[in-house]
Amino acid sequence: MTAASNTPEVTQLYQDTAEELRQFLLCKTGNAQQADEIAQDCYAKLCRLNHYRDIRDQRCYLFDMAVRLAVSALGRRQLATCRPSSNGTSDSGKSSAVGEAVAYRSLINELQTVAIKDALSELADRTRYIFLLHRYRGLSYSAIARHLGLSVSAIEGHMDVAL
Fold first, then answer.
1. Gap between the Cα atoms of 41 and 48, Å rounded
2. Within the chain, how many helices (H) and strands (E) appear?
3. What number is the average pLDDT over the span 121-150?
4. Burial class of residue 158, CB neighbours in 10 A (0-12, 13-18, 19+)
């Protein structure tokens, strides 16, 4: 299958999701022009994929790609605004840079949260439970061992797997 044969399917996906994707990116970037550019870039990249039909959920893939491109764009924008200018930085430039930094950090946090949730969902139930007891409830290995009737070394083994 050639990438050129993706075009009709990608065009249909574009028609179905364009406004939703644009609004999503606008919320993430805070910049309408940049949201439009990222959306167009996503669709162009999908058209060029050789294995487009192998993607199980194209819509999900599209939004995931959009988030990653937005993070990249915000990072570049943040880098550009952090460089010292020869004529100094105005107050509006500083507030814009702060807003972009917040948007960038927010997207990074969102991606990290998704990655953690995905990783936790792949753990065995008992291992996930032990990990959450230790990391989020603050219980010690010995307290978890007593609570579950396991040895401390068994708890350590579960934590090694989780980490």
1. 11
2. 7, 0
3. 92
4. buried
